[in-house]
Amino acid sequence: MGKHLGVAYNLRLPQELKDKIAESAKELNRSMNADIVARLEDSFIRSDSSAPTNADVKIFHLKNGIKRVVFGKLLNNLSLDYTQELDQLRDDVHLALEVLSGSSFWNSLKFLGKDVLVYKGDNHIDVVDNGKKSLGWLIVEDHYVANNK
């Protein structure tokens, strides 16, 4: 038995959560205990930071005086070309969410019971729970800014 620096704690959790932890631990090639500890540490780091991760905002300067504002929980998890037309960007967001849907990361988004839809309006894109509300995962808004020169 190796060095044991931690304190033992007997934890009861629902079978579904245990299965998610086991899947995540396997994907990350670590023990379930290490996965639980890493997740707990990460949650404390996030709660201690001065700005939550969903407060990140990116602004892209497009042609014709349009500024594209992008924000949401998935902003730093998706590497997309945010300068493309909204129709194409909507399709890329949809594809990225399909790929994520098979990962343990998707489970952390708590999508169960939600009908996830990438909605495109005239000047924006939003990932929504169909017919209900924005999920706050990714919002893209185009703003026209007049030049006062």
TrEMBL record:
GO terms for biological process: regulation of DNA-templated transcription. It comes from the Bacteria. Gene3D superfamilies: Met repressor-like. It holds the Pfam family Arc. Keywords: DNA-binding. GO terms for molecular function: DNA binding. InterPro entries: Arc_DNA-bd_dom, Arc_rbn_hlx_hlx, Ribbon_hlx_hlx. Residues 9-46 form the Arc-like DNA binding domain. This is Arc family DNA-binding protein.
